Amino acid sequence: MTPPETATPDILHGFPGTRWTLPSRSLAASKDGSRALKSDFIEIHDLRAWTTLGVHAEERMAPREVILQVVLMTRDRGAATTDDLADAVDYEAVCRRILEHCGSVRPQLLETLAEGITRVVLTEFAVRRIRLTVEKPGALKRARTVSLTIERKGS
């Protein structure tokens, strides 16, 4: 959804109505003593995964496609300065791990699948926060998709 032209973003909170609020530790003191915002976001759009998902017996007979929207708030590890993948979040590895997880579980609920994915990402990668939307196309006859969005913070 595109914000209205009259909306102006707030530096810490984005456009009105958005849910991201950045923790105070993301503000780092610069040489002149001022506080500089230090947050990087990786966005992965329309990641297609296959999993067995659903409450009804007919849904559990075969894996189905789910579509994921993933936003990762990363920890600043100097990747922009070093230009070294070792200092960055390897988003290909994140996607590979998400796909592995989806293929290895058989949850009944979108909530369970989403919670498992966020737990894997937050524990295995240098990610501070994750916002994840899981879409289940064809879940309802009169709707293109049903989705669930969750946001979790790492330790």
List the helices and strands and how they pair.
Layout: E1 27-29, E2 35-37, E3 40-51, E4 64-74, H1 79-82, H2 91-104, H3 110-124, E5 127-137, E6 145-153
Antiparallel strand pairs: 1-2, 3-4, 4-5, 5-6
Helix pairs in contact: 2-3
Could you please describe the fold and organization of this structure?
The chain has 155 residues and is of the alpha+beta class. It has one domain: GTP cyclohydrolase I, C-terminal domain/NADPH-dependent 7-cyano-7-deazaguanine reductase, N-terminal domain (GTP Cyclohydrolase I, domain 2). Helix content is 21%, strand content 32%. The protein contains three helices and six strands, in the order E-E-E-E-H-H-H-E-E. The strands form two sheets. Strands 3-4-5-6 form a four-stranded antiparallel beta sheet, with helices on one face. Strands 1-2 form a two-stranded antiparallel sheet. Strand 5 and strand 6 form a beta hairpin. The protein is elongated, with a radius of gyration of 18 Å. The two termini are 30 Å apart. About 12% of the residues have low confidence.
> Spans of 5+ residues with little confidence (pLDDT < 50)?
6-16, 20-27
> Helical segment tally?
3
CATH architecture, by name, is 2-Layer Sandwich
Number of strands: 6
The CATH homologous superfamily is called: GTP cyclohydrolase I, C-terminal domain/NADPH-dependent 7-cyano-7-deazaguanine reductase, N-terminal domain
Strand residues, percent: 25-35%
Keywords:
155 residues, alpha+beta, GTP Cyclohydrolase I, domain 2, 4-stranded antiparallel sheet
